[in-house]
Amino acid sequence: MKKIIVYSLVFYSLIGLTIVVGQGNNGWVSLFDGKTLNGWKAGKNAETFHVDSGMIIVHGNTSHLYYDGSFHNHSFKNFEFKANVMTLPHANSGIYFHTQYQEAGFPDHGYEVQVNNSHSDDIRTGSLYDVVDVKDIWVKDYQWFTEYIKVQGKRVIVKINNTVVVDYTEPEHPLRDTASHPFRYISQGTFALQGHDPGSIVYFKNIMVRPLP
């Protein structure tokens, strides 16, 4: 099943595929070489993630794939981040920032930017999960879109393609559910891609970051 889906999407994955290795391109740097998971680290259920046709394919049991590479010592505070993403029906995933590696479970540290266009969870793509929840559906399954995140100081901006869907400034004393999100605060750290459940299939490519002062 997985191979059939991969091959059927090869054509789409090659359209607009741009992998930049190293510095340049107005300061944008690629975190994914398009061929391997070098520079990335998954904990439990690592088989949820594999690479094919220039994409990171996410399909399997709950797991998270953390950027663990050498650029910026995989620790970012102020930055711009963008990735091309595509979901299949009923998929759920996310992009974490200001997080840190942990072997299992959903990351305790950092914010999650949601990827979900048709899952039963009604918190949709672009949400700053459990902080600013977007209910509108901005993109559809089977369509590539760009998810963009900018963090500068305490301000977080999320765009889907060119549309701002979240513009949030963390207050001095943010209220958090300490049971489920004890460290959902602006700090610094790495990025992580989420494998949510075995029924979710999500594709990522062109994963880029640009550090900011």
Task: Write up what this structure looks like.
This protein has 213 residues and is mainly β. The protein has one domain (2-211): Jelly Rolls, CATH 2.60.120. Helix content is 6%, strand content 37%. The chain has 2 helices and 13 strands, in the order ααβββββββββββββ. The chain has helices at residues 2-8, 10-14; strands at residues 29-30, 40-42, 49-52, 55-59, 63-67, 79-87, 93-99, 111-115, 145-152, 155-160, 163-169, 190-195, 201-211. Strands 1, 3, 4, 6, 9, 10, 11 and 13 form an 8-stranded antiparallel β-sheet that branches. A 5-stranded antiparallel β-sheet has the order 2-5-12-7-8, with no helix packed on it. Strand 10 (155-160) and strand 11 (163-169) form a beta hairpin. The chain is globular. Residues 1-8 and 10-22 have low confidence and may be disordered.
Quickly describe the structure:
This protein is 6% helix and 37% strand. With 213 residues, the chain is mainly beta. A hairpin with a 2-residue loop joins strand 9 and strand 10.
Class by alpha and beta content = mainly beta
Number of domains: 1
Name given to the CATH architecture: Sandwich
Q: Mean of the pLDDT scores? A: 90
Q: How many distinct helices? A: 2
Main sheet attributes: strand count, strand direction, barrel closure: 8 strands, antiparallel
What is the terminal separation in angstroms? 45 Å
Radius of gyration, in angstroms, nearest whole number = 16 Å
**Helical content, roughly?**
under 10%
The CATH superfamily is known as: Exo-inulinase, domain 1
SSE order in H/E notation? HHEEEEEEEEEEEEE
The counted number of beta strands is: 13
Oligomer: single chain
**What fold name stands as the CATH topology?**
Jelly Rolls
Strand content: 35-45%
Assign an overall shape. Answer: globular
Q: Low-confidence spans: pLDDT under 50, at least 5 residues?
A: 1-8, 10-22
Q: Give the C-level CATH assignment.
A: Mainly Beta
